[in-house]
User: What shape does this take?
Amino acid sequence: MLIHAIPANTAYEFAADVRDGLTRPGQKELPSKYLYDDVGSALFEVISHLPEYGLTRADERLLQRHAGEIVDRLDAPVAVAELGSGSGKKTRWILEAFSRRGPTSYYPVEISRSALVMCERELSDIDSISIVGFEREYLDGLLEVAAYRRPGQHLLVLFLGSTIGNFDRPVGVKFLAAVRGILEPGDSLLLGTDLEKPALQLHKAYDDELGVTAAFNLNLLARINRELDADFDLSQFAHVARINHEARSVEMHLQSQRRQTVRIPAADLRIEFAEGETIWTESSHKYSAEEVFPMASDAGFCCQAQWIDEQWPFAENLLIAE
Ligand SMILES: C[S@@+](CC[C@H](N)C(=O)[O-])C[C@H]1O[C@@H](n2cnc3c(N)ncnc32)[C@H](O)[C@@H]1O
Assistant: This one.
């Protein structure tokens, strides 16, 4: 695979975002995109195998079952872009269906270089599929992919795994509208959305018994230590998953176990934590199957088809750009 690599976030931007998030009045925050360095991407891959985290398996069952129908609904020729591909394991079903139709270009867009490398390793054996990876943020990468399109070629954008849920609801619609702005009428977006489910099941999915999700979350502090020379004592922070009923989301936090001071020299920061205070690191919003239709139309798409998993409430939605 060819990787177009301009590291998506420089150390300077990382330091600025850490500074901004940890000096906010009230709730301290860190952007969830920084969870995915080499260690974080590897840990996320393990999370996707955990018995408590049924989301990835539901997504994959739907793709396996309906890939042929999804591809048949799209007019050839099609190029496939994937936003935040991760390891790309589930994408195999879609790409194999395209490969039966003829040569197809696949463009994974990833902030994490190691995820792009995993993705290439996972998918490079599929006949007639050429892979060009973009180490970029979602929209920057998609803009470049769109510039590659040949006259008459349609684009299918994959945004799987309910990564849309990491955005607050209104920001998620704005993000979809920005994706639509890069596309042409008739292009399509396959959007995975995790659906609402009982609180206990949700809580376990984000706080597993083995502690892999806890390690994934704590790795963000370890990453700040590694890359920004900070002195977070990881044993003095704990992973907490919280259900936010009003927002219909699960939040991940890192909770300070005592009053403490942390130094982050590369961000020119000395930061105080009270006992019990948290850093909010990620939200995963959950959806009703019905709300995807108005979300799509508010963003300039029409939801043409929706498939729902029977074992783990999850919807795969095929949106067409209007
Ligand atoms: C929740 S994981 C989902 C991975 C995969 N799509 C799946 O369904 O299993 C989100 C992926 O998006 C990538 N990512 C997160 N923020 C990003 C951003 N702003 N731009 C590009 N990629 C991003 C991460 O590196 C990670 O691989």
Notes: The chain has a mean pLDDT of 96.
